[in-house]
Write a structure and sequence with these properties.
A hairpin with a 3-residue loop joins strand 16 and strand 17. The longest helix is centred in the last third of the chain and has 13 residues. The radius of gyration is 18 Å and the shape is globular. By secondary structure, the protein is of the alpha+beta class.
Length: about 290
């Protein structure tokens, strides 16, 4: 019988039951891929992150959705894992900002943590922006989202952006259009396949107020219908808007997500020049996982 420490942390939350819940499992080196997938299904969260030893970094992270798909990139799955370790005293005092290295897939990326105001805060840099070609036609995209063609804003163009995971960036004309979206999974899967993207980030952004955005995230390709806070989408969104000259240099973009799900989340991203994602979290549950 194996017993592992595990639990839940609400990421990008400043109060309990906000943000995006993440399941975390410690000391997972002895688990097989099949066991990790079964455990992720048992937790039934958007993602479950497993903490492992690494010969390339301070920790290796592997993350799986409830449906068993492994996901990559430095998003809420990674930030939440480090906040979990920090909140449980596994990384030292963190009285001053301390940088660690995390192995995620083929990447080794930095994350900096500090204890401030009674909670651990983290900021982590994602990979450099990679852009796919813009969608040639957006009629099928609008239909897949359950919207009218004129709900889609023409600029920046809808296209896949990747800073660790490729997601389709879709600017809509306002936040009301974002909230009206009622995607069809089969139709959206077809569009995502043609765009070379994993998920769809539908967002509203006003160039006259370039410090905020409002978004929803849909990812039927990994069995995740809607996500409350998606760092691997907010990062490339910030990088894409920056590449198009729409952000104030050096300023932080605050992305509001999860409102329609009743789990309001605030994701903060700035360009350094690659996107740097930051936030905090609240440990909701800690216990023992018995195998």
């Amino acid at each position: 019988m194996t017993q592992l420490a595990a639990g839940l942390i609400d990421v990008f939350a400043e109060t309990p039951f906000g943000g995006n819940p993440l399941a975390v499992v410690e000391d997972a080196d002895g688990l097989s891929d099949a066991q990790m997938r079964r455990i992720a299904g048992e937790f039934n969260q958007a993602e479950t992150t497993f903490l492992l030893q690494s010969d390339r970094a301070d920790r290796k992270l592997r993350s799986f959705t409830a449906s068993g798909a492994e996901v990559f990139g430095a998003g809420h799955n990674a930030l939440g894992a480090w906040l979990w370790m920090g909140e449980h005293g596994q990384l030292g005092s963190l009285d001053t900002p301390t940088t660690f290295r995390q192995e995620i897939g083929g990447d080794v990326l930095p994350i900096t943590l500090v204890n401030a105001g009674g909670h651990v805060h983290g900021r982590m840099r994602q990979a450099a922006l990679r852009l796919s070609a813009p969608l040639a036609a957006t009629g099928a995209l609008a239909e897949a989202l359950g919207l009218a063609p004129d709900d889609l804003a023409p600029f920046p163009a809808a296209r896949a952006a990747d800073t660790g995971a490729a997601h389709l960036m879709v600017r809509l004309r306002d936040a009301r259009a974002v909230d009206r979206a009622t995607p069809s999974a089969p139709a959206l899967l077809a569009v995502l396949g043609s765009a070379g993207a994993e998920g769809c980030y539908a967002y509203a952004f006003d160039p006259a107020s370039p410090d905020t955005a409002y978004a929803r995230f849909f990812n039927p390709t990994v069995g995740l219908w809607e996500d409350a806070a998606t760092g691997t989408a907010a990062g490339p969104l910030c990088a894409y808007l920056g590449a198009e000259g729409l952000l104030n240099p050096g300023k932080t973009l605050v992305v509001e997500q999860g409102v329609k799900m009743g789990r309001r989340s605030l994701l903060q991203v700035r360009l350094t020049p690659d996107p740097e994602l930051s936030g905090t979290g609240i440990v909701a549950l800690r216990g023992t996982l018995t195998l």
